Amino acid sequence: MSTVVLVAALVAAGLIAGLFYAYACSVMPGLARGDDKTFVEGMRGINIAIVNPVFMLTFLGAPLLAGVAVFLHLGEPALPWVIAGFAFLAGMVLLTGAVHIPLNNALERGGDDFAAVRAAFETTWVRWNVLRALVSTAGFGCLVGAVLTGRG
Which stretches are transmembrane (predicted)? Predict the structure, then answer.
């Protein structure tokens, strides 16, 4: 059971790290090429669409499963990797709650002055998303380390 939970955490972490990576290297650069209205309306649409069961299952499931895996791996050589993976994935959730959700909410409430709304959102959101992509990737990497340690 401990291996199943760890692998499930690993898969969920990989999916979520890949999502934030895709935002960093394609979604946001693509939206950046549009005018202010296109950018703001595009992000507003994405922010609504992303809150769905599949996203929430992976976004919250990765740290939750990693947390369960910590307890299932007590006393095992993989434990430090699992703890580190959990910490990074929990950090990803905290970062999203502290930075991205408030920015997304402000974008939604920002009105129709698209230039001002974009100016208050884009640079900060993009920079913090790069950090979020790195943090979630580190969580994924640590869980890979845990799986590899468990095989040894």
Answer: 50-72, 79-101, 130-149
